[in-house]
Amino acid sequence: MRPRPLSAVVIDLDDTLLSAYRRPDLAWRSVCLMMQAELGGLAPDIAAQALTRAGQAFWRDPRCHELGRADPRHARRLIATAAFETLLREGHPAPACETVSSLADAFSRRRDEEMRLEAGAEALLLDLRDAGYRLALLTNGAGPLQRAKIERFGLEPYFDHIQIEGEVGVGKPFPDAFRRAFAALAVEAPEVCVIGDSLEWDIRPAKALGCRTVLYDPERALEAELRRSDADVVVRTLTGLARCLPALHTQRE
């Protein structure tokens, strides 16, 4: 069969181009230490561990995940409430309700303040444009929230198509989200390389459609879950990633 050369790249936003939501445990601990005097005698480390566990449980639930993508600030308040309710049942002291909300909001502010472009992200986009690839940004989340990130970091000029779950009504990992992006670029799946940080949301659904895939796993967090059939390439850094793509051109249908 004839090779299908790559002509387009579809890229994820959060924790791929932007460092946004990794290591919530460290962020919760930092906020708990900052607000230690308001925790009602509860040790900051105990509070941070409970908040991290509550967050993991929240984001594992598909319905909660959907609600949280639409309104992360509200999601963090729900997470904080659940964490301190659990601690109270276990016999720990608990802060006032107002403190719980304030702590969750402080976490949201910290996440926003610490958000940044991943090292090598801008160079990657420039390299891909220079190489002639059509580019799409495919991201889940609420329209205003994701648009604000795109504007803040000046990403819009790099892309031929920007697709946000909250604006179009469908997001990853659903096939229609990917197909909509492919149609906007006037390409078919075998001509596309999808770059993302999630096996569940980016890599496996794209692979199922016939795309080439690049998994961005800077902290080696997904090594235990990774199957040989998942990603064509796994990278720890975005620097020089564009040079990996020509090797994928030789893959066959």
UniProtKB/TrEMBL annotation:
Gene Ontology molecular function, alphabetical: hydrolase activity
The reply on keyword Lyase is: no
Q: Which domain of life is it from?
A: Bacteria
Keywords linked to the UniProt accession: Hydrolase, Magnesium
- A Pfam family cross-referenced in the UniProt record is Hydrolase
Q: Which Gene3D superfamilies match?
A: 1.20.120.1600, HAD superfamily/HAD-like
Principal EC category: hydrolase
This protein is called HAD-hydrolase yfnB
- Source species of the chain: Brevundimonas vesicularis
